[in-house]
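Customer ticket, subject: "Can you confirm the structure for Succinate-semialdehyde dehydrogenase/glutarate-semialdehyde dehydrogenase?"

Message body: Hello, I'm evaluating your service for our small team and ran a test protein. I'd like someone to confirm that this is what the system normally returns, since I don't have a reference to compare against.
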Amino acid sequence: MAQYPDTDLLIRGSWRSGGGGAIDVVNPATGEVIGKLAKADRKDLDDALEAAAAGFAVWRKTSAFDRANVMRKAADILKSRVEEIAPVLTMEQGKPLQQARNEVNSAVEAICWFAEEATRTYGRIIPARGPDIVQNVIKEPVGPVAAFTPWNFPINQAVLKISAAVAAGCSMIVKGPEETPASCAALIKAFVDAGLPEGVLNLVYGVPSEISSYLIAHPVIRKVSFTGSTAVGKLLAEMAGKHMKRITMELGGHAPVLVFDDADLQSAVKTMARVKYYNSGQICIAPTRFMVQDKAFDNFVADFENEVSKVKVGDGLEPDVTMGPLANERRLSAMAELTEDAVKHGGKLLVGGERIGNRGNFFAPTILLETDRSAKIQIDEPFGPVALISRFKTYDEAVTEANRLPYGLAAYAFTRSAKTMNGLSEDVETGMLSINQHGLALPETPFGGVKDSGYGSEGGAEGIEAYLQPKFVTKKLI
Ligand code: NAD
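Agent reply: Thanks for trying us out. I re-ran your input and got the following:
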């Protein structure tokens, strides 16, 4: 079995223990302490800021072609380490080993895609109003970035920020997830081992609020990117606004799933059950509020329940396990409280609703039917393995429900009607809409939300634009 490594900070190309002591890392499947994490103090942060400034000076002058070469090499190194990193990710986060492998492999894809995109950061020439006048728009990297990444996908949430920033020519200080630090560090190590100049990527851990308030306010930092809860996102956006820093905010969601009478029900059930319980439901785009049209309702519920009965919960390192523990005890108590409150609000508990065993953070895959909209789980993001299923009669009713909450990250729909598909593309208030499939979170497509789910995009051409600043240069040739 793989050894779980202790995690150090990376500052100016060197791995070091932090001045702030160490933090325990716990395996959520066993509750056991499996490793230590270095905690940054103020001196570490100052060193990281100085390193990011120096790294930026070098990297912004490195050609896009050479940046892409380093990135491709990092992707190759990461690919060669899948079997080494995946068990580490499972041990610290809980997800089944195959899902951990998928996460590393999709990080490889993201790095490759952004490496190519680095070479396409074109500017443009604007026709001038007079002779001998040239008007150019050039794209420049925005500068050193502070990135805050969460524990649900410790590699994938970090890789989109890192790849886009590095491709654009920015440097970055990553504040990684304290609960799941080693896999995020392994991702960054691939870049270091690929020859990324020192200071371009720096990795710190510690007390999140202390690090964010220090870094965001610091004049070296020119952009902030955060993935996490809406509450924290609003706090950081306020700080960034005060210091006029550019921001990308990828926050919470409460995704609606609209299943119409004319849908391919088998496909809807299979696709959504797989995505719902993937990563134990700890996904910002997880399908959560299922709305099923009247005639399809009974069949959908029966088939969905049957599909959920096949989910095998256990330690992600064990073979055949398809759902691991929740990543931390906070989610476990949140699931218990939300389910209890839902039942008080008329929710019919079809399956699950309770902790499994008394060791590790295991919670049963759960289905709640017809929970009143005033229940807490109908308002707050559950971020766990709970599906809420209700019924609707008309298109308008479905759209009103889809748009009911201040969230607007992902939405799903299942229908054979082109008219309904077109209507939904216009009417659903969401950053991403996936119809008759789960087609979200690819490196080449934009990923981001509207309303309280944040702003800015992490994937696609939009993803790299977030790290580029247009500069207009006009000259008269004399
Ligand atoms: P939380 O709100 O305390 O933290 C969420 C994330 O933000 C964590 O990674 C945390 O380290 C970081 N964070 C917290 N305070 C911070 C600060 N002041 N400065 C910088 N970073 C800070 O909640 P939690 O218990 O860790 O997670 C639960 C909730 O977070 C979930 O309900 C979900 O809404 C949200 N979440 C969303 C995502 C996502 O992919 N969008 C990922 C993880 C968590």
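A couple of notes from the result: The first helix runs from residue 42 to 59. The chain has a mean pLDDT of 98. Feel free to reply with more questions.
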